[in-house]
């Protein structure tokens, strides 16, 4: 995980200047008497899209762990079309960035057990999950790289603070915020849960189930595991699953396939507990455990994403036989 901070003033300036460099006003184009290559009509979110391209280029060129792997922020500058973007970044190892630290403030939502949040809110799905999904589907489902492209760290932290402390300002803030920051906030929420959404207890069973070679046995096992989840976890997972499927339906536009989305969310929703890691550390390092399991985590989520629609009521009624026999 690498955090990138860019000042709001610099961000706005970059967007405006990039638009001037890369976009031609339609009226100016029509006034010209010389034949020119047709240009696309500029949309209101052009600046944000261009800024996304700058960030993508930044990620490809600059995020080399060997050069930024230190505790200090690394200052740098990137140029694009004659425009300089100043930024700060630091590298955090996967072991640390994915470590879950329960919140000491039980009044917030980040780092608080999901059943505590839903009980307090008197809801089936946490408010933060519902609002972020709604906003992404409203204006971000066509965004190229949605959920893959990182939002600005300061924007995500601002949203986190508002969700934790002041629900009155959330809707206004969401409507004005960059959509990648909202997507990043949703990912951060799941990453900071005290335990993964698919739970520590069931993690070994998910790893065994996805490895089954017999399709019928795998189906029985994977559905049984969903039914074994606590109700708040299951009732949050299913709407998220449906949302990600809707995002993938726009793959020709947003370039996010089911596999891409599983790669982004799999290791966040499902990963070994610290106890599992400690138990295996006498054999290999924690980093090796992460690397070994990450593909299986992706495959678990991909299995459910590729599965026909799953309803909570049907799962609870169904009494499919659970088997791990190959």
From TrEMBL:
<dbReference type="GO" id="GO:0016020">
    <property type="term" value="C:membrane"/>
</dbReference>
<feature type="domain" description="Rho-GAP">
    <location>
        <begin position="112"/>
        <end position="312"/>
    </location>
</feature>
<dbReference type="Pfam" id="PF00620">
    <property type="entry name" value="RhoGAP"/>
</dbReference>
<dbReference type="GO" id="GO:0005096">
    <property type="term" value="F:GTPase activator activity"/>
</dbReference>
<protein>
    <submittedName>
        <fullName>Active breakpoint cluster region-related protein</fullName>
    </submittedName>
</protein>
<dbReference type="InterPro" id="IPR037769">
    <property type="entry name" value="Abr/Bcr"/>
</dbReference>
<dbReference type="InterPro" id="IPR000198">
    <property type="entry name" value="RhoGAP_dom"/>
</dbReference>
<dbReference type="InterPro" id="IPR008936">
    <property type="entry name" value="Rho_GTPase_activation_prot"/>
</dbReference>
<dbReference type="GO" id="GO:0007165">
    <property type="term" value="P:signal transduction"/>
</dbReference>
């Amino acid at each position: 995980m690498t955090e990138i901070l860019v000042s709001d003033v610099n961000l706005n300036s970059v967007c405006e200047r990039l638009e001037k460099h890369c976009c031609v006003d339609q009226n100016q184009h029509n006034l010209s008497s010389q034949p020119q290559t047709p240009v696309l009509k500029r949309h209101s979110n052009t600046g944000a899209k261009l800024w996304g391209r700058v960030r993508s280029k930044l990620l490809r060129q600059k995020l080399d762990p060997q050069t930024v792997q230190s505790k200090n922020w690394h200052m740098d500058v990137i140029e694009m079309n004659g425009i300089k973007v100043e930024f700060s970044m630091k590298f955090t190892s996967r072991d640390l960035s994915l470590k879950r630290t329960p919140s000491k403030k039980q009044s917030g939502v980040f780092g608080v057990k999901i059943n505590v949040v839903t009980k307090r809110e008197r809801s089936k799905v946490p408010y933060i999950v519902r609002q972020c999904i709604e906003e992404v589907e409203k204006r971000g489902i066509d965004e190229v790289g949605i959920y893959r492209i990182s939002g600005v760290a300061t924007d995500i932290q601002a949203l986190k603070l508002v969700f934790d402390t002041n629900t009155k300002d959330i809707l206004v803030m969401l409507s004005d915020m960059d959509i990648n920051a909202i997507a990043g906030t949703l990912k951060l929420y799941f990453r900071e849960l005290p335990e993964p959404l698919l739970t520590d207890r069931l993690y070994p069973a998910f790893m065994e189930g996805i490895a089954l070679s017999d399709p019928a046995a795998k189906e029985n096992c994977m559905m049984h595991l969903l039914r074994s989840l606590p109700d708040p976890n299951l009732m949050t997972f299913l709407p998220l699953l449906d949302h990600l499927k809707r995002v993938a339906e726009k793959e020709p536009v947003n370039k996010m396939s089911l596999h891409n989305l599983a790669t982004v969310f799999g290791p966040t929703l499902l990963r070994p507990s610290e106890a599992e890691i400690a138990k295996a550390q006498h054999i290999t390092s924690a980093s090796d455990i992460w690397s070994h399991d990450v593909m299986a985590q992706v495959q678990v989520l991909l299995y459910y994403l590729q599965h026909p629609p799953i309803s909570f009521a049907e799962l609870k009624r169904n009494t499919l036989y659970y088997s791990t026999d190959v």
